[in-house]
Structures are given as C-alpha cells and as structure tokens.
Design a protein that fits this description.
The protein is α+β, with helices and mostly antiparallel strands and about 1000 residues long. Helices cover about 55% and strands about 20% of the residues. About 5% of the residues have low confidence.
Length: about 1000
C-alpha cells in the first residue's frame, strides 16, 4: 500500500494496466519510499522546531524577568540618585531612552534569532535529506559516542533491524564488538576502530572486506567546534562493483599493453603536436631507438628521413587545422630511417582517436625490407623462368577450364608439329589425343578442378599423324586472386623410352623365364642326383657296419669320401642358388662354441694329417659355454675355410683360432681366424676371390680340384650372419682368413637338452609308416628305423599310405614327396583335412629349396629330412618331432612310453650325458648318480604324500625340481610325462588323470632306482 498522497496521484493519473505492470511497481515503490522519508524528516523538523520555539519562549520569559529585575534595579538606582542629587526629571528621560534602546535591541535580536532558526531548520532539513538519500552509510556520533544522526543505508549495512530515528541517542561504545562478526577479519576491525578514535585524525578510503565478500570503503572525519572536539562522522560505501570494474579496466589496460608490446609490428602513438607518447618493443627493434630516448620527441626527428621532414610537418599541421583524413585509415608504403640513418621501406597504417577531448594518432608500422627484396628476387626469377619456359626442351601447355589452349611454348610447338597460332583457341583433347585415350584426359581435367596435381603417360598423335608417347605433369592453374582458371601441363616426349620399356619387358620376361627354368633345373637336378646318392651313401653306411677286410675298408672309405665330395659339390651349388634367390635362412640355435670348434678340428684333422700338416686349434677359454646362432652355417664356413687352407698348403701348418674381442651382459663378439702357410694369393686375385667359380690357376697348371664356390658361399653366409670375411695373403708365404660374429649369450640348460644322445631301441614298441616309391631308399630308411626300435610298415605311394592309415594307427609317418599315383603333399593334405589325423608326418625330400620346405610345412607336415641324410640327424629329427607331439597330446600319458603289454622298456636310463660332462671321470658319474638316488627317493616320498593329501600344486613344484635330473639321467620315456605333470592344467583336465600321471611317474622312478642299485650304484652316506 502506498502513501496516501501518492496513492491519490496514482488513482488519478494511472490506468489499471499500469498499476498492475510489474516493471513500474519498483519505480512506484521507490517514489513511495521517498514520500515516506520526506514525511518522516518533516515530522522530525516540526518536532525540532516546536522544541526550539518552546525553548525560545522560555528564554524570552527569562529575559522579561531579567528585564523587570533590571528595570526595578534601575528604578531603585534612579530613586537613590534622585534622593542624592535631586535630578529626577533629566535622569528619567535618559533612563527611559536607554530602556527603549535595550528593548529595540532585544527585539532585533529576537527577529535575527528567528531568521537564523528558520535558516538552520532549512539547512538541517536539506542536510538530513541529502545524507539519508546517499548510497553511502553515514553515522554521526557525539564526543561521548552517542548517535546524533544515521541513515537507512547504515542500518542495512550493519543489519540493524530498527529505523535510523530510533537510533538517535544510542550509545555506540560497544558497537564495534556487536558488528565485528560481519567482517572477514573481526579482530582487526575492532582494533582499528579503537585506534582511529584514539588518534582522532581524519582517515579516508580505508578498505574493509566483509564475510560475504562485500568490500566497503570507510571514511572517518572528527568534528571540532572552535577547536573543541565535539564528535565524529563515519561513512561506509560499498565499492565491490567499483573495485571489480576497476580491476577489469586494469586487466584490460594490461592486456592491451601486452598485445601492443608483443606485436611484431612497430606501434607508435603521437599527440596532436607530433610528439611520441608510446613506443613499443618492436619499434625499438625496427628503428633502433629505445622507448626512453624517443618519448616526448617529435616523430619526424626520429623515423622520417631528413629529406621528407618538412613535408611531413606541413602535412601534419594541415591535417590538424582542416581535419583532413586523406592519409588516415589507409595502408601506405613509405620510406623510413633508423637510428643509424639507414633508410628502408615500411608499410604504415595510421588511425586517429580521441581521449579526454584530445586527438592522438596511432601508427602500425611494418618493416617490409625483406618483402621488397623478395619481390625483387621474385621479379628476377619470374623473368628468368619466363625465359626458361620459352626456351626449355620441355613442352608447356596452358589451357582454360574448357580445355581450350591459351598458351604453348616453342618446345611444345616443336613436339606437336603445330605453331602457336594453330594451337590457340583449339581443344587439346581433340587436337592431339587418340580416341581411346580421351576418357583419361577428361578424368585428369576433373582432377584439376578438384585442385589435384599428378603425372601420367599418354599416347598422342602429332600434326603429321605419327603416334608419340608424352609424359605429362599436370597441375591446376590459378589467377592472382587464387581462383582456378584452368590447368598447366609440362610435356616430355618419351617415345624412345617407351620403345626401350617394351624391349626391357621382353628381356625381363625372358630373364624371369630363364631364372624359373634355372630353379626348376636345379630342383630336378637336386632330386635326381640326391635320390641315387641317398642310396649310395646309405649302402656305404650299411657296409661299414659289416665285417670287412682291410682292402674292403679301403674301398668303402674311398667310396664314402667320393660320395661326400659329390654331396658337398651339390650342396654348394644349391647354397649359391638359395643365396641368390633369398631362400637362405639363418637360424637361432643354442650351441657350444668350444664343442663346435673341436668338432671342426676333429673332422678336418685327418685331411691335414694325410698331407703331414700340423693342424692346431686355439679356442679362448673366455668364450661362453653356450651361445645362440646358426651353428650349422658357422661350422660350414669354418670347414670351408680350413679345407681351403689344407688344399693350398703343401707344408707347414694350419691354425684355427677363436678369441673373444668384446662382451656385454647379453652378447659376446668372437674373432675367428684360419691361418695357413700355403701358396698365398696375389693382390689381383684377392680382389676377385669371392667371385663364383674363381681359382688362381690356369689350364696348364691345374693341380687343385674344386668348384670355386666355397669362398663365395662362405663370404655370403658370414654376411648373412652379420659379419664380414677378410683376407690377408702374401704370395708363397701364406693366407689368413678372419671374420667377427656377435652372438647372444645362451642358457646352458637349453644346450643339455639339445645334446641328448639317441640310443638303440629307444623307440622300441613304436610304429612307423614309411611312404617311399624307391625300393632302395626304403631299404636304407628301414635300417635306421630298425636301429631305433620302430615297427615299420612300407607304402610305395600316397594312395597306399592313405589306405593303411585308415586301417591302422602309427606313431610317425615318413613321407616321400615325388611319388607316382599320389605324391606326398597330396597324401598329407588328405590325412590332415579329410581324415583329420594329427599323427606326426616328416617329409623325406630331395628338394632343399626354402619355398619347397615352406610348402610342405604349410600343408601339414611337421618337419623335413633332406636326402641323402646323416643317420644321427635322422635320429634327432624323429626324436624331436615325437617329443613335440607327445607334449601336445597327453590324453593318456601312460600310453606314450609303455610297451604293448603294459611293461616298461628294457633300458630305463642312459648315462651318456653324464659321461660326456665328466670327460672320462668315473668318480664324478658315480657321485652324480648317488645324488640322483638320494634326491629322487625324497621326491617320491613327497609326491606320494601330496597325492594322499590332494595338494596338487606341490606335486607340480616337485616335478619342476626333478625335471633336469631326469633329463641328465637319460630317462627318455619320462621326459614328456614329467613336463606334463609340471604344467598340468586342472581346469582342462581331471583329478583322476592327474593322480594317475603322478603315480605313473613314481612307479617309473622306483623302477629306475631299483635298476641303478642292481647295477652297482649306491646312495651317498649321510653325516
């Protein structure tokens, strides 16, 4: 509800819609508050006036009483005077006059007082109205801290729930403590008020932060009247928004300053008199003057060249007078000068702005010296390239978006046979392109419209109708505004090259066919030679096992030597072919370098002894016991080099040397040397020693046999293994071959497993299917299989083999490749894919090329044996394949090593490994066997206990512990079972199967221990 008078005005002047308008209600409420405040101040003023009038009347009454007393006293005095002097009349007149004067004076004073009172009331009313309507909170206190005046803003600020009028006379002595909770630092608020009141000195603009985040500014003004302290005034103003805006302005100024200081262009601001007031760092860099040097200096004296200063100053004055803007808001190029007086071109943009009614000019200046230099260089290059284009041998053709010719250089005219006038305005595709190639040109034009560039070959016809081949490098063409206007093509006549390409293609096809024929020839030759050679070597091997006379032994040895020599020649030829075709593969195997060197020495020793040559071996003891690399290829290289030295040395010695040259935690680098005292080589021959079929001799002096491939193969093999073969030779004094190879350091445990010896009847009770069409080859293979203990079934081709597999189960299949009716690959595919059998299949092949081997393995074979084979290699391959197969298939592990009748094999252990390690020390062997007996007995007790308690994890750990001992003792038929026990997965198996496997291991080990004791071995006595 509004104040009565305001309500009447609203009812009189506002319609109902305006009365209900939410936007006008705050305005009406503000007016209403002003009316209410005005009435409150008027009542306060009237109240004050009444008090003052009452006080005046009381004073007037007191004055009248004093006047009466004074008048009586005067009259008494007059009477006394009259009695003393008798001058009553005259004095009465004088006294009466004095009274009138006094009365008039009093009346004047009263009138003056009334006027002063009215003026004071008006001033007081105005002052109160002003203070009450201030946004600031105001408090006036007396000298004894009683409130004389305050306003509504003060009450709101300090959350005082009463009106300002009710606070008049309130004692503020404790008000600071009552209000301290409103401020962020209450203790400081109180102590600061006490400090201010104690010093009674004017204090302005003190900032205080309240708990709600509001910031107020406080003023304190002491009031003195005639030098006497009468109280003080407090003023509090909310400056939160003011500070916020001030901070934003400061941040904006700082940001603008940073931008201007960071600008790459010079920014200079001058006043209307042309004097510099701002000079950013880029201006310092460009012109060489520091900020302090140029501020307040005329711009013309700093950057304007002397020859242009008068014109600059005149133009500046003209612009100030006429307000001319011709040079403003435009990008201009002008000369300028730096501190050193050097002139250089600049680009300048000037704007005018006003601040506080003053005009200022801001210039953005960029040093364009480099750009101008580049433009000049570009201009020169344009001219140069224009001349190049006009005269180059490459034909240039420019067409528009419709493929219409716009320009062609002289070279293109010569290529096409047309002159420029004949070309202009014509369509390029219609003029040159053959009908069957127009689609290509259309596609290229679409690419240009998509802003793509490319190069392509195109068959065209020239003006004379001749077909030519052009190589065209096409690109989209743009105008200076970046708009696509067509395309440009650089043309090269490649007709001669295309003719050469056709001839090269024919030659390539011929070469590929020749290479294929060579490969096919080598493969067929390999097969055809290896097959009979396999029989020859096999028969010789069998003859060596017979009881022969001394002469027969001589004949057999000579035949074996010749057969091996023939095999070496064949292998060398195939190795060269493999290396050339990239089929040669370097393997990573764990091997003993010392054993390998001793093996090479033992193999080649007899050859050296036959020529009465000393053959020495120097193997460094620093070599690791096991390294990882291709030991087969390393042995081949060393045998080649040693054999070569023996061949070309007539007297003296051969030295095979190996020493460590560097070593890390994971690798060891070894230097291998073969040193001889042979015939040596000339420098000319050393330069071509690694060429194929190369020997330093002539037809009339041909004393040495050989193909000349050994050194080539050795060099290539060393290169594939990461080394380089070096040759140091002196004619008639000897030769040194050397190379370095870096090997990984291997795990000795891996070597123990790989050196396992294969003994007679190790596979007794196992069955094998031999698939081979050559009867003699079958005979040779059966001799080896019989030695291992296999029961072998023969099949002359793949078809017969499949029929047998359907009816019987075999432990291993040995499969020849090339057979009539059905070859080995077809038979393997049928066994794997149709019959679904996983029986291990080993290829018996005379094909030694990598792609052939990869094919066999890809089709499902597990491994391969190359004919003719070494019997020990044959044994190791079969053992390896069967071991892997048994590890993967332990459906019933007990069946893997039991005889057909369920009994154990006759030979329970093999001490070959221990004997090799002992190097003939029988005491060492006995001690190791005794340790095995003790440890195994303890392990058996622990396994049986854990079987009863069903703690299978412990059994697996025990199996892991005794696994190396089983391998060393040569208990071959437990090799797979102990590993199966170690890694058994209960989630995929069963408790019954695991228990059965563990019990089987225990039974076999008990049988082994019993056999060892019966063979005379005993346990180590315990202390």
């Amino acid at each position: 509800m509004y104040q009565k008078f305001l309500q009447n005005l609203i009812n009189k002047h506002l319609d109902q819609d305006l009365k209900q308008n939410e936007q006008i209600k705050p305005f009406l409420q503000s007016i209403n508050d002003s009316f209410v405040s005005f009435e409150r101040y008027r009542e306060l003023l009237e109240h004050s006036f009444k008090i003052t009038e009452r006080e005046f009347e009381e004073m007037s009454s007191r004055l009248q009483e004093q006047f009466s007393i004074k008048e009586k006293a005067i009259n008494n005095l007059i009477e006394i005077t009259h009695e003393l002097h008798g001058e009553k009349d005259q004095n009465d007149s004088v006294i009466g006059t004095d009274i009138i004067l006094v009365s008039d004076l009093i009346k004047k004073q009263i009138l003056s007082y009334n006027e002063t009172r009215d003026q004071l009331n008006r001033t007081l009313n105005l002052f109160k109205t002003l203070l009450d309507n201030l946004n600031s909170a105001v408090l006036v206190e007396s000298e004894d801290r009683k409130i004389l005046f305050t306003n509504e803003a003060f009450c709101n600020l300090f959350h005082i729930p009463v009106s300002p009028e009710h606070l008049i006379g309130y004692d503020c002595s404790n008000s600071a403590h009552e209000s301290m909770h409103l401020f962020a630092e209450p203790e400081i608020f109180v102590s600061r008020i006490e400090e201010i009141l104690r010093h009674r000195k004017t204090m302005l603009d003190e900032l205080l932060e309240m708990k709600d985040g509001t910031v107020v500014e406080r003023d304190y003004v002491p009031i003195h009247v005639d030098g006497i302290y009468k109280g003080h005034l407090w003023k509090y103003e909310n400056v939160t928004e003011k500070l916020k805006h001030q901070k934003q302005i400061e941040e904006s100024d700082e940001r603008n300053k940073l931008i201007m200081n960071s600008a790459l262009d010079a920014i200079v601001i001058i006043d209307k008199h042309g004097k510099i007031i701002y000079w950013n760092p880029s201006a310092e860099r460009i012109f060489g003057w520091s900020h302090d040097e140029v501020v307040t200096q005329p711009l013309s004296d700093i950057i304007i060249p002397s020859r242009m200063r008068d014109g600059h100053n005149t133009g500046m004055m003209r612009r100030l007078v006429s307000e001319e803007r011709r040079m403003l808001d435009r990008l201009l190029e002008l000369p300028a000068q730096n501190k050193n007086g050097d002139e250089f071109p600049v680009e300048i943009y000037v704007i005018c702005f006003e601040q506080e009614d003053e005009k200022y000019y801001c210039g953005f200046i960029k040093d364009i010296s480099e750009r101008k230099n580049n433009e000049e260089i570009l201009k020169l290059q344009e001219e140069k390239y224009r001349n190049i284009i006009a005269n180059m041998n490459l034909g240039l053709l420019e067409v528009d978006l419709n493929d219409t010719i716009i320009y062609a250089n002289q070279s293109f005219c010569e290529m096409s046979g047309f002159n420029l006038d004949e070309l202009k305005g014509k369509t390029a595709a219609e003029l040159f392109v053959l009908e069957n190639h127009k689609k290509i040109v259309s596609e290229k034009n679409e690419k240009r419209k998509s802003h793509e560039s490319d190069g392509y070959e195109l068959e065209v016809k020239n003006k004379n109708g001749q077909n030519r081949w052009w190589f065209i490098s096409g690109a989209p063409n743009y105008n200076d505004r970046g708009q696509l206007i067509g395309s440009i093509g650089i043309h090269l006549d490649i007709s001669e090259q295309k003719l050469l390409e056709k001839e090269l293609a024919k030659a390539k096809s011929f070469a590929e066919a020749a290479a294929k024929a060579k490969e096919l020839f080598l493969a067929n030759m390999s097969h055809e030679i290896r097959t009979p050679l396999n029989v020859i070597i096999g028969m010789i091997r069998q003859l060596t096992k017979e009881h022969l006379t001394e002469d027969q032994h001589f004949y057999i040895n000579q035949s074996a030597s010749s057969a091996k020599h023939l095999l070496t020649i064949l292998n060398n030829v195939l190795d060269v072919a493999k290396i050339e075709s990239g089929d040669m593969e370097i393997l990573e195997n764990a091997f003993s370098p010392s054993a390998l060197l001793y093996n090479v020495h033992s193999i080649m020793y007899s050859q050296a002894a036959e020529k009465n040559l000393k053959f020495k071996l120097n193997a460094s003891p620093e070599m690791k016991s096991v390294l990882v690399g291709d030991d087969t290829r390393l042995r081949q290289v060393l045998i080649n080099l040693v054999g070569n030295s023996i061949k070309f040395t007539q007297e003296g010695s051969i030295m095979l040397n190996a020493e460590v040259v560097s070593e890390s935690d994971t690798h060891q680098t070894i230097l291998f040397e073969v040193i001889d005292t042979g015939i040596g080589m000339s420098p000319d021959f050393i330069a071509r020693i690694f060429d194929k079929f190369s020997q330093e001799q002539n037809e009339s002096n041909r004393r040495y046999e050989g193909t000349g491939l050994g050194m080539t193969i050795s060099n290539d093999l060393i290169r594939l293994m990461g080394g380089q073969l070096g040759v140091d030779s002196i004619k008639s004094a000897g030769t040194t071959f050397s190379f370095q190879l870096t090997f990984k350091i291997g795990d000795p445990n891996l070597l123990v497993a790989s050196n396992q010896q294969i003994t007679q009847n190790i596979f007794k009770g196992c069955t094998a299917l031999l698939v081979e069409d050559n009867e003699m080859n079958r005979f040779i293979a059966i001799q080896s299989l019989d030695y291992l203990g296999f029961e072998t079934t023969e099949a002359e081709n793949g078809k017969v083999a499949i029929d047998l597999v359907k009816q019987n189960t075999y432990d291993i299949i040995l499969m020849d490749i090339q057979m009539p009716v059905m070859d080995g690959v077809e038979a393997t595919i049928y066994i794997r894919e149709i019959l679904g059998l996983k029986t291990p299949i080993v290829a018996l092949t005379a094909n030694a090329f990598k792609h052939d081997i990869e094919l066999y393995l890809h089709k499902g074979m597990n491994d391969f044996i190359t004919k003719p084979y070494d019997e020990q290699d044959f044994f190791q391959k079969i053992n390896h394949v069967l071991s892997i197969y048994r590890e993967k298939s332990i459906a019933n592990p007990l069946e893997n090593h039991l005889m057909n009748d369920g009994s154990l094999p006759e030979k329970l252990y093999d001490l070959t490994q221990l004997e090799q390690i002992s190097r003939g020390n029988d005491a060492f062997v006995k001690k190791m066997v005794s340790i095995f007996i003790n440890q195994t007995h303890e392990s058996l007790v622990a396994i049986e206990k854990n079987i009863e308690e069903k703690t299978f994890e412990n059994i697996s750990r025990i199996a892991h512990k005794i696994k190396p001992s089983i391998d060393q003792m040569g208990i071959i038929f437990l090799k797979n079972d102990i590993r199966a026990l170690e890694s058994y997965k209960m989630e995929t198996g069963s408790m019954q199967e695991f228990t059965q496997l563990a019990q089987h291991v225990c039974n076999v080990l008990k049988a082994v221990l019993k056999k060892l004791k019966s063979d005379g071995y005993s346990t180590i006595p315990k202390d």
